[in-house]
C-alpha cells in the first residue's frame, strides 16, 4: 500500500522537471559563522506583504441555501415545503461569517485568505481535499498528495505541462473536452484519438478496449514514427461529450495496459460525483427528499476513480469545484503521487502563482461551517445529484416520447453520471454524406432555437471520427426550469423530425 | 490622439501571435441554407454551465472599514476618534450586500460572478479599470484597452509571453522584482541589466539614462551576438527593491529612446499610487485626517505613467489590486494597445482561463457600493497613502537617528512611493571583499532577529551588479504596529553597528 519511490520521472516533461524556485526573500542558508544563533522572535522587514490592517474588508457573511434552487420561484417541488425536508438535527443556519481573525485551525480567516498564500493552495483547503479523496476515492497507495488549482482548465494545463515535451504522444478519447487539445499543442505534444463506441447495438458504449489494446501492442506498425504514448487523457465518468461512464472492470483493463505499456493516466473528473440513476419517466415534480445515504452512495453509486486501482502511483486526477459549488470560483485540485505534485508546484510557483484566496476562504468556510466537513459536503452533492437526475429525466423524456424517436430518427445515450447526454442521429442506411447533412441539421437547430454541440466539434481528429460524428451533446445544466428543458427538448426533436420528413433537407 | 493601426506586431512573440481560439459550443457560422432564419428566443442545451440555482450561495455581505486599521487595536490614531474623521456626506455604511440577482449594470451579482465568465474579466470590472486609468494615467492615444489578470504575477507572465521568443532580449533594471526573470527564462528570453545609480553623491538616483542611451546606440559593439532589445521592463515608481521613482523628464527620455530604437515599455506598477511625501520625523501619532484632495493628488503627487507619454501605443502597463485592496484576491489588470490586449486574451483563453469571479465580484461591488466608483476608490488609496507614509517615517526615523547613520556606516534611500526603502551599507574605502562581508552581515541580521532582502538577491546579474550590491531592501508594509517597526529598525541598525565596530566581523 506504499509507493516510496516515484518511478515515473521518465514520463514527466524535461521542461517541468527542470524548473526550480527560490524566493529572493529567503534568508541565508549556508556559511553560518561561528557563534551564530538565530533570534528567537524575528521581525519581518523583508516580505512585501501588506499587513491585514490595510485590507478594506473586516469580515464576510456568506448567506446560503440548504437545497439547490431553494430560493428560486422556478423550481418545482413536491407539495411538501422544502423546510420540512431538511433532515432532523442537520444545520439549519443559513449564514456563515468569516472574521478577520479566527482561532479554529480548519478555518481560513480574512487575514489569511486575503493575504499572499501558498502556491499549492491554503493548507486548510488542501487538507479538506485530501480528506475528501480519502473518503470518496482513496488511492491504493500512500504517498500521494493534492495541489489546489484555479479550476479544471488550470488543472489540465498543468497536467499537460507535467508530462508533454515536443513530440510526446498522449492518447485521448476521440470525442473529448477539446480545449485540452490546446494544452497538448501548446507543449508540442501529439494527440492520438482512441475509438469510442456510441452504438449500443455493436457492443458496450464508450472506450473501445480492444482498439486500445491492439493499438498499444502494435504501436510501431500502426503509428510509425510516433513515440510510444506517455499518457492517456480520459474523462471516465459521465464522459464529455458522450455521457458514458467506464465500468470498473474496464478501468482495471485500462490500468493494466498503463502498467504494461508504462504510461500515465490523466483522469479528468469534473462532474463524476453526479452519479445518476437510470432514466425514469419524470412523475411531475422533483422529489427533493429522495436522496441517498452517504455510504450507499459511495458503495453502490459512485464509480471508483482510477486512483483506487493505482498501486504504482501513475494516476493524475483532476477535480474542480466548478460543477458542485460554482464555476466563478476558479478553484479545483489535482491528486497525484507526491513527486508529480511537487513538480506541478514549481509551475505554480513560477507561472500561475496562488489560486484566489477569496475563493478558497469562501469554499473552505462554507464547507466547514455550513456543511460540517467532508460528509456534509457529500450530502450537498447528493442534493445536487437528485436535482440533476430530475432535470435529466425531464429533458430525455422529450426525446424518448417523441415521434422522431419512435420513427427511428434518433437514439439517446442515457448518461450514468454528469450533466451531458448524447443524441445520436440515425441517418438512413446508405447515407453517404452524413457530414454535410449534419452541417445542414446544425442550421435547423438554430432555426428551431435550440443550442447544441455537434459531436464533430469535440473530435480530436475529424477524419478519424467521421463515421461516429452523427451525434449531438446536450446538457440539462443551464436551463432555468422544467418548462424550459421541456421546450428545448421539443425544439430539438421538432428540428430532427422536420429535417428527416423533408428528406434530410433544410 | 489616436493610434489606428498597431505597428508593433514585429515586437510580439511568434508564439503569442500564432494562438487562436474558438469554443466548441459556438454555433454554425458559414453555409447557412436558403430560407434560414434564426429563432428569436433560442434556448441553450449546449453550454455546460450549471444554472445559478445550483450555487449554494444566495448572497454575500461584505463588512468593511472606513480607514485602514480602523478595527485594529494596534493602530495609533490622533485623539480625535476615527468616526469624527469621516468626511461629511460620504457613505458611512459599513456593509455591502451582493445579491443573487441585481439590476444595476455596474454591479456583478452572484448569478454572474459565480458563473463561468469572460477570460478578459467581467465587463463591469473591466470598465472600472478603464475609467480608473482615464482618471489617473490617461494614455496619450485612444485605442487602448484593459484585460483583467489574476494578479501582477500573472500580468508579468502574460507580458513576457506577449513579447519574448527564444533569444529575444529584454532590458531590465539591474535590481528588480526578480521573479520576472523566471518569466523571461521560461520563454527563452535574455535579460540584459541596466545600471542603476544608488549613490546620491554621484548623480540622480535610479535608472542611469546615459548608460541606457550609450548601450542602445552602441548595441552591436557592447552586446555582440545579441539581438536588439524588444522591450524594457521597468518599475518606474517606488522601484522594487530600491524605492526610487523616475521623474517625468527621465521617463520622456526613456520613451524617446523606445521610439527611436523601437522597443516596448513594460511598466510594472504595483504600488505607485502610494506616492509618499518626503520623510519627516514622525510626531508621535498618525494623523488620519491629513489626506489630500483627489485633484491635488493627481496633479502634484502621483507621478504620471508612461501611458501618459505614449503616442505610439508601445507601453504595456501592469497593475494589481494586491497592494491597494488585498493580495489574496489574485486580481490585477494590464493596460495596452488593443491589439496587444487581444493577443494576451488568447493566452488567457487557452492557458490561464478566467480570473476568479469571486474576487471580481467582491472588488467591483465594494468599489461601486461602498466607495462609489473611481473617485471613492482614490480616496481609499489616499487613506492607504497616509498610513504608509506614517509607517515609512516611523521606520526610517530609526535609521536617521541611529549611531550607525551618524557614524557613516549606512545611508538610506527615502522612497518617494510604494512600500520599500533601501539601506546602503557604506563599507570603508578600500574594502575589497564587500560581497563576502555582506554575506556575513546577512547572518548578523538573522542573529539580531530582523528579516531583510540583500540587494544581491534581486540582481539580474550578480557579477554585473557586484559593486552596487551593498544595500538591503526593507519594507514597512507587514509590521503590526509602530512599536514593531521601531523594534525592527533598531535591530537592523544594531546589527550594522556591531558589525562595523567589530571590524566587519560577525
TrEMBL record, chains A, B:
Q: Where is the Aminotransferase class I/classII large domain?
A: 98-491
- Any Pfam family from its record, for instance, is Aminotran_1_2
The record's InterPro entries line, in alphabetical order, gives: Aminotransferase_I/II_large, Class-I_PLP-dep_aminotransf, PyrdxlP-dep_Trfase, PyrdxlP-dep_Trfase_major
For the region Disordered, give the residue spans.
19-38
Which CDD domains does this one have?
Answer: AAT_like
Q: Which UniProt keywords apply?
A: Aminotransferase, Pyridoxal phosphate, Transferase
Q: Does the keyword Transferase apply?
A: yes
Could you give a GO molecular-function term held by this entry?
A: transaminase activity
Q: Which cofactor does it need?
A: pyridoxal 5'-phosphate
The record's section on PANTHER family has: AMINOTRANSFERASE, AROMATIC AMINO ACID AMINOTRANSFERASE 2
Family to which this protein belongs: Belongs to the class-I pyridoxal-phosphate-dependent aminotransferase family.
Q: What is this protein called?
A: Aromatic amino acid aminotransferase 2
- Which species does the entry assign this protein to? [Candida] anglica
Instruction: Name the gene for this chain.
Output: ARO9
